[in-house]
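Residues determine shape. Take a concrete instance:
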Amino acid sequence: MVVMATSTGKLIDRETLEEDMNEECPYCYRTIDKKDVKEHIHQQCLEFPVRCKYRCREKLTRSQMEEHENNCEYKKIPCTYEEVGCDIKVLITPAHTKISAILVVCHSSTVAIELVLHIIYTYMYI
């Protein structure tokens, strides 16, 4: 047994000292220096639960979140007219109608509005 003196002058064995300096993460169960636990949990721990940045209320582990956010229905997607300069981002959610889910259009485009109206009238009479 190796005995060391602490700053208070007390003698303590090395194993106890190392145990006092480390803490187990409550999410991933890794042993971490006590001084780094908060940073590990809030920035690094892959098992820490986080919320989706698209506000879909989904709460997953940090390791699962990237895949979820790539496919999240609340993710904003570019307008179909982005190539010609439209910078509108459209939020696709489960609450959107069948029409808007099929066709994401620039709201300022007259042609697009006419196309949407045509689709609406077509579905009304089916």
About this structure: The chain is about 35% helix and 20% strand.
